[in-house]
Amino acid sequence: MPCLILRLDAPLMSFGGVLVDQHNPTDRFPGRSMLTGMLANALGWHHQDTEALNSLQARISYAARWDVPPEPLRDYQTVDLGQTHLANPGWTTRGAPEHREGGTAKRGIHQRDRHYWANGVMTVAVTVPPGEPNVATLAAALRHPARPLFIGRKACLPAAPVLLRVRESDDAYHVLASEPRDPRAAADTRFFEACWPPGTTAPATESRQRQNRTDDRDWRTQAHVGLRPMITGYLTEVPPCT
To answer: Quick one: DSSP state of residue 93?
Structure first.
């Protein structure tokens, strides 16, 4: 089946996590909802397109690999949202106004501790079964996105085009294992931290390295839901960049 090969390369990236109060952690790997949001943004979809978003999310399977391991970064933020220039809708580069929804929380002083990955480079293989949108449609949208793309948060702008190429493979794990590493990966790196879907490697290995993740979103309620298994470990035979 065709597979999207993505290169997540940005000064800062954030992959969400379990949110408690004002603390915004980041997971080690992107979640399925984050990839869904990025693809939907490229397609020009909106949060109101809940059926399409839930359908696309359910079809996505992926594997991810750190080619250049990142550094953790914590950003303390505070802002008074009641200021006049923040309280009113603002115009975007797309020629349409944008403003915050919500009740009293959209006013007043807010504080956040947001966590990011800095200076890392990740390769991601994404597959979707036959249906719409298909891989060709998604690839075209990533090449010419309807809106600017970001990696987890709007401040996390990619430093290079997100789509590397489209390849054929039986599954996301095997295409990722055979995809050359980024040129910036250290030449002596033997172990590449990665995650992949279950059912593609040895059962004994998967039983030791299985983790349950809450990385799906119910796009109707904007809440993360459920538990989904992923395997975390290391890839050891990643070909060099040619």
So the answer is: T
Look at residue 80 and tell me if it is in a domain. no
Q: Are 52 and 137 in contact (CB under 8 A)?
A: no
What pLDDT digit, counting tens, does each position of 101-147 carry? 655 556 677 788 889 999 999 999 999 999 999 999 999 999 999 99
CA nearest neighbour of 201 among 164, 161, 230, 179: 230
Q: Is the peptide bond before 133 cis (omega within 30 degrees of 0)?
A: yes
CATH number of the domain bearing residue 133: 3.30.70.2660
Enter the pTM of the model: 0.85
Mean pLDDT is lowest, of 88-97, 125-134, 147-156, 192-201, for 88-97
- 32: containing domain: 2-71+118-235
- Number of domains forming the structure of the chain: 1
| Residue 138 placed within a domain | yes
Strands (E), the chain: 2-9, 12-13, 23-24, 61-68, 71-80, 90-91, 97-98, 109-118, 121-127, 163-168, 192-196, 210-213, 216-218, 223-225, 228-235
Assigned domain for 216 exists: yes
Mean pLDDT of 41-59: 96
1: confidence class by pLDDT, cuts 50, 70, 90:
confident
Q: What is the helix, strand, coil percentage profile of the chain, to 5?
A: 20, 35, 45
d(CA 2, CA 46): 26
Contacts of 123 (CB under 8 A, 6+ apart): 5, 6, 7, 8, 64, 65, 67, 164, 176, 179, 181, 182
What's 96's DSSP letter?
Answer: S
Give the tokens for residue 125. Answer: 């293989």
